[in-house]
Structure formats: C-alpha cells, structure tokens
Amino acid sequence: MNKNTVLAWATFIMIVVGMCLIALGAFRYDDVAGWGFAAVGVGFFAIAWVFNALKGRV
User: Fold this and answer.
1) Which of 3, 4, 9, 20 has its CA 20 to 30 A from that of 29?
2) Which burial class, exposed, middle or buried, applies to 8 when counting CB atoms under 10 A from its CB (0-12, 13-18, 19+)?
C-alpha cells in the first residue's frame, strides 16, 4: 500500500465513523448529548475532506 491508498482508507473509515456518530446523535440521544455527537461527526467529515485533499500531494 502506498501513501495514497492509506489516505483513501483513512478517508473512508472517517466518513463511516462520522456517519455513525451523526446517527447516534440523531436517533439514540434526544438531549444535549445528541448535539455533541452530531458536531463531532461533522468534525470527522471535515478531517476526512482534508485527507481526501491530501491524496497525491504528500
């Protein structure tokens, strides 16, 4: 595996974890904790976007 493949897998895993966190915030927790889970999930999406942008540049 080269660097681009590692970044692609990291991007994929972070998108899956981000979606799981957003789903936890939306469906499992109905109070303020749900907003926190959803915010962290959006943060995972932002970091995955950065990883995707780094493919081919590192």
Assistant:
1) 9
2) middle
